[in-house]
Amino acid sequence: MTGLSGLEGTLVGRLVQSPILTLTTQVCGKNTVLIIFMLPVSFPLAITCSPPPNIANGMHDGSNKEIFDYNSSVTYKCHHNFSLTGEASIHCTTKDNITGVWNGPAPECTDEPINMVDLIIGIGAVAIIGIAVALNKKLRQKLFTALKLYI
């Protein structure tokens, strides 16, 4: 380019290796040069987590999603007759500001232990009902009314 006396090389060297567009035009009888450079620009990437782990005998409320954004959470629940052990909810976080990770392990669903008191009351109720059936109607009604208080 004429008229820049080496200025272009200095400018280009400082910004990037080469301009992507150079325009020369006449403004008021003088050559005017417009140089457009492509400068590197970075945009933050979205932090997402991989799908949360599935658990045996249970499920989480995010099974219909494919992408789990930063700070999103899922809540687990167990199938009937299973108890949740651990935190019910986990959320997507990050340790390095780049990769998403779940803040803790998924809970587990375990068989509910048999409560011995409930078992004894249940066996006792069956025995009492069996006796009441053999007795007269009035006594049977009183026993059933009394049992409703415990069941």
Automatic annotation (TrEMBL):
Entries under Pfam families matching the protein: Sushi
Disulfide bridge map: 49-92
Superkingdom classification of source: Eukaryota
Keyword Membrane: yes
PROSITE patterns: SUSHI (PS50923)
Domain Sushi: 47-111
Keywords for this protein: Disulfide bond, Membrane, Repeat, Signal, Sushi, Transmembrane, Transmembrane helix
Residue stretches spanning the membrane: 116-135
Gene3D superfamilies xref list: Complement Module, domain 1
Signal peptide: none
Name of this chain's protein: Complement component 4 binding protein alpha
Species the sequence originates in: Chelydra serpentina
